Amino acid sequence: MADRVYPSSKPNPHPPQPLNGGGPGFPPTKSQVNSATRLPYRPQPKPRSSRRGLCCSCCLWFIMLLVVLVILAAIAGGVFYAIYRPHRPAFSVSVLRIAALNVSAAGHLSSRVDLNVTARNPNKKLIYFYDPISVSVLSGGIDIGDGSIPAFVQDAGIATVLSATTSSSGQTLDSAAGNDLRKSSSLPLEVDMDTKAGVKIGGLKTKKIGIKVRCDGIRAPVPKAKASAAVSPGDGCKVKLRIKIWKWTL
């Protein structure tokens, strides 16, 4: 007859522990196992390639827009030139006379120069409107006199004769320059003119731009006991347009 086996009355020192709240003696459920082995969520940073692609797209669109604007401006400029054929104004000194020139013993200069300037508008459809013109007469870098010409409007295809008088009073010269002016019977002169002018096309007026004119190669006699004769240089002057773009002047 087989022997009977009776359970031990001693308690188990290491009883099975429930997994994540499972009941005693029961295996853990599938959800408990998954929650125990699942890693915590960590947000992933966005890839840099998407940001870089967005920046490249913006730059590409900006360049394309700039190219389109340049092309449209070039087309508009070509159409304007084909229709109006614009030319810059022309200037020349028609008559010049040194009416007075005195240098005192202390080197003080007093002078007066009378001159006529001819301004020509070679355009057939464009009208020029000028600001007052500042006029300076120089000889060897010495300012002989300053004056101005009033503002005026010049119609298309005409020549306008402008009269000006320049003078200097009380200007102090060094001894060498004063002696040279006293001894000279005639002086080489330069005439500088500075102004701003705009263009009128029908009812449209453009913004005024700077114009600088230089007339050189002029020689006039210095008056002594009697009035000096007038000279008629007649040569064309150099005209330079000063176009300002933002902070730069071209």
Automatic annotation (TrEMBL):
The keyword Cell membrane does not apply. Its main location: membrane. It is found in: Membrane. GO terms for cellular component: plasma membrane. GO terms for biological process: defense response to other organism. Residues 117-215 form the Late embryogenesis abundant protein LEA-2 subgroup domain. Keywords: Membrane, Transmembrane, Transmembrane helix. Residues 1-52 are annotated as: Disordered. It is a single-pass membrane protein. The keyword Transmembrane applies. The chain crosses the membrane at residues 58-84. PANTHER family: LATE EMBRYOGENESIS ABUNDANT (LEA) HYDROXYPROLINE-RICH GLYCOPROTEIN FAMILY, OS05G0199100 PROTEIN. This is Late embryogenesis abundant protein LEA-2 subgroup domain-containing protein. It comes from Musa balbisiana (Banana). The lineage of its organism: Eukaryota, Viridiplantae, Streptophyta, Embryophyta, Tracheophyta.
